Amino acid sequence: MKFKALKFKAFSILSVFVFFYVFSNFYFIPMDTAINAGAVSVSDKRLVVGGETVGIKLYSEGIVCIGLQNIDGRCPAREAGLRQGDVIYSANGVLLNDSEDFAKAIEGVNGSISIVYMRGKDTISTKIQPIRDSEGKTRIGLWVRDSVAGVGTITFYDKESDRVVSLGHAVTDSDTGQIFKVRNGYITDCQIVSIKKGQSGNPGEIQGRFLPDEHIYGYLTKNTSSGLFANSSGCTKIDGQEYPVAEPAEIKEGPAKILTDLAGNGVEEYDIVIRRVYYKSCIAGSDLLIELTDKRLLDLTGGIIQGMSGCPIIQDGKLVGAVTHVFVNDPKRGYGIFISSILNEIGNN
Predict the structure, then answer these.
(1) What DSSP letter does each residue of 269-334 carry, written as one string?
(2) Residue 179 lies in a domain
(3) Mean pLDDT of 9-26
(4) Highest-pLDDT range among 21-25, 215-219, 235-239
(5) Does the active-site annotation cover 294?
(6) Which of the following is catalytic: 12, 15, 309, 340?
(7) Are 84 and 75 in contact, with CB atoms under 8 Å apart?
(8) Which of 133, 150, 208, 250 has minimal CB crowding within 10 Å?
(9) In angstroms, rounded to a whole number, what is the distance separating the alpha carbons of residues 224 and 344?
């Protein structure tokens, strides 16, 4: 069996303020491989499609170590064994919800600071011996993050589970590259402030402003490799059309549509072409190779841009996938994920 490497780099396309990641050298099993793209049957499933550009705010489970810094030639956190990517859950017995909790827990402490953190699946305890600066403040040489925010697109609303789904890929920390562990967060309406057109070698992006709390579409419950899942109970519902869902075997190379509201006239359809269907992709979110062909959207965006993660893909009257990535050197082309892959992830959560 031969594997083919695509000669492109691809970016996930959630437009971000503080997070972003890169994929390079994708490998796929050829199209004649037997279909086995997920355990969930979607033959009777109907979903309300999205296309709305939204603001997304995630709060971390614990606080994430994003960097270490020497202080007068020493780094107490590094000496205690901490590394970039570790997630700190408590300090001196105080459970941490945010970086402010952490600062309060360690400020003014005499002696060592007891820390409990996770590295991968391992829970680790350690003690940090802080340094006092010239002003008497506690310093441990640790940079942390407790939240991330950005712009993406709603893929669908599922009436049966009362969930809204967006992005089609995970949100990862820009500094650690790890999937961001979500404590809570929300998906809210977003006013598009500007659109930076994409060019070869320079992905474009949507810049937006979050709207007030009454426009919230859902409260986040999961950040997965197939997208963000949010509980929509008591929240604003998207006003989209209901579509049946395509099985992977029904998806074919050829014309299709994506949905987005970037032109400012509500959610509209734009022409794309599905160039390849990868029934057993080795990379999450890369089931479909797509090309944007609609002149109206190309004139507006220059191609697929950051913030279009999650745009629904429609073919032959069925919801088939969601946009996930753009090729850096060819912004008209990118990847998409099967909707069945997203539903399978929901079934496992």
Answers:
(1) EEEEEEEEE-TTBSSTT-SEEEEE--HHHHHHHSSS-BT-TT-EEEETTEEEEEEEEEETTEEEEE
(2) yes
(3) 37
(4) 215-219
(5) yes
(6) 309
(7) no
(8) 133
(9) 11
Residue 286 and residue 280: Cα distance in Å, rounded?
9
Q: 273 and 253 in one domain?
A: yes
Supply 321's token pair. Answer: 């996938």
User: What φ, ψ does residue 105 adopt, rounded to 5°?
Assistant: -70, -30
Token code pair at residue 158: 């599922």
The residue annotated as part of the active site, out of 158, 166, 169, 286, is 169
Q: Is 56 helix (H, G, I), strand (E, B) or coil?
A: strand
Residue bearing tokens 């590094």: 78
Here the tokens at position 262 are 């970037």
Average pLDDT value for residue range 320-329? 93
Q: Is 169 a catalytic residue?
A: yes
CA distances from 211 to 152, 216, 230, 268 (A): 14, 9, 18, 21
Q: Is residue 232 part of a domain?
A: yes
Q: Is 58 exposed, middle or buried (0-12, 13-18, 19+ CB in 10 A)?
A: buried
CA distance 62 to 274: 41
What CATH number does the domain containing 91 carry? 2.30.42.10
CA distance 138 to 109: 8
User: Which H or E element spans position 183?
Assistant: strand 182-196
Q: Are residues 27 and 114 in the same domain?
A: no
Q: Specify whether 252 is located in the same domain as 287.
A: yes
- In the numeric block, the tokens 């606080």 are attached to 63
Can you tell me the mean pLDDT for 296-315? 96
What pLDDT, on the 0 to 100 scale, is given for residue 348? 58
For 347, the token pair is 């079934």
Res. 106 pLDDT band, cuts 50 70 90 = confident
Task: Give yes or no for a contact between 38 and 344, defined as CB atoms under 8 angstroms apart.
Answer: yes
Active-site residue, 173 included: no
304, 7 Cβ separation under 8 angstroms: no
What is the DSSP-derived secondary structure letter of residue 214? G
Decide if 255 is inside a domain: yes
Q: Which pLDDT does position 215 carry in this prediction? A: 86
Domain boundary among 122, 140, 158: 140
